[in-house]
Write a structure and sequence with these properties.
With 254 residues, this protein is an alpha/beta fold. It has a single domain, classed as Rossmann fold (3-Layer(aba) Sandwich), CATH 3.40.50. It is 41% helix and 17% strand. It has a seven-stranded parallel β-sheet, sandwiched between helices. Helix 1 crosses helix 7, helix 3 packs parallel to helix 4 and helix 4 runs parallel beside helix 5.
């Protein structure tokens, strides 16, 4: 009998590593997929048990198919967390970055949208055949609102939160709804979890600007997000399907 595993893409990044830790502490076997071998090796040293780190470019169907065949020999992935994305890091720019070039557009869509689709195509289809599974796509508050560019005023020069991030997170929500309806009759749930700003060494001025928009008057902690993902993954949420659960301290309600 195969072991049951949770698969997290982009699992070696800032938030992904918190998700890995949360699931391991709750007795899940975690397979972490990322494109950074160095980051994966650090996690391997930290989590010696119940953890496998694998390098894969999820935007390549050839690589994902190879990954699927390798994992499927020993594990049935009944929880898939599509966390991989390219997020624009705020920086001072010499030139206005309002319009990302097409190569950057393609790169971000390949990882954030196409990658999630390919992972669902292989791992989600097996869940469908086995009548068991939970898929959680990691979105953003920008899956339902536009970025407020004013929060960068006085913090970064010539910086705009790029259109690509909004487009791919809105698109991921559409994908969530599509597969949630397609898979529901086979006891496979597909949901999306959309965090607001998460505390991660941001500049004080940027935090101040953000807090003016958040009724809770604080940024999210990684554990706020990880706890909600764990809830969506496990059986206590078995009748939640096709939803976009926004965790933002109330930012998007006003």
């Amino acid at each position: 009998m195969k072991n049951i595993a949770t698969l997290i893409t982009g699992g070696a990044g800032f938030l992904g590593s918190f998700y890995c830790e949360k699931f391991i502490k709750n007795n899940h076997y975690v397979i972490c997929v990322d494109n950074s071998e160095n980051k994966l090796n650090k996690l391997k040293k930290k989590y010696k048990k119940k953890f496998i780190g694998l390098v894969c470019d999820i935007s390549s169907e050839k690589e994902v198919k190879k990954l699927f065949n390798y994992i499927n020999k020993k594990f049935f992935v009944n929880i898939l967390i599509n966390n991989a994305a390219i997020d624009a890091v705020p920086l001072n720019n010499k030139k206005n970055n309002k319009y990302p070039d097409i190569s950057q557009w393609d790169k971000e869509m390949d990882v954030g949208l196409k990658g999630a689709y390919i992972m669902i195509k292989y791992f989600g289809e097996l869940m469908y055949k086995k009548n068991d599974g939970s898929i959680i796509n990691i979105g953003s508050d920008l899956s339902v609102i536009a970025p407020n560019q004013k929060i960068y005023n006085g913090v970064y020069k010539n910086y705009f939160k790029p259109v690509t991030y909004s487009v791919l997170k809105h698109g991921l929500l559409g994908m969530t709804k599509y597969f949630s309806s397609l898979y529901a009759d086979k006891k496979v749930r597909v949901n999306m979890l959309s965090p607001g700003p998460v505390k991660n060494k941001q500049k004080k001025k940027l935090i101040s600007n953000l807090l003016n928009l958040i009724p809770a008057k604080r940024l999210a902690n990684p554990d706020d997000i990880a706890e909600a993902i764990l809830f969506l993954a496990e059986k206590n949420s078995k009748y939640i399907n096709g939803q976009n659960i926004i965790i933002d301290g109330g930012r998007t309600i006003i």
